[in-house]
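To fix ideas, we now present one chain and its tokenised fold:
***
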Amino acid sequence: MNEVLLYTGSAIIIIWGVAHLIPTKAIVRGFGAVSEDNKKIITMESIAEGLTLCFIGILVLMVTIVGGYEDKVSKAVFWASGIMLFIIAILTALTGARTSILPYKICPLVKTVVALLFILGILI
């Protein structure tokens, strides 16, 4: 059951990360007429979030495969990943989720669910 929770959380957050990467050009266009510098910053931030989410998912996936879920180093990675997802869920709730864009509104929920899956993967 522990591994199922960890693998499920990893898959969800990797998919969510890829979902951040794919629409980057459309996101930048959605800001309308902004300076080239601002376009670069928006692009960077969109890509950075997508890559971060993918990295967290891949890290948990690899650690689960290589070290299992009972190893103390694995547990440290799962805790750190879950806490990081909670932190960026709060950041998103205070920023992007306050927009009218539906994916940004549900983003804190997705991150929180995955964080809980990672932590339950340790505790159950």
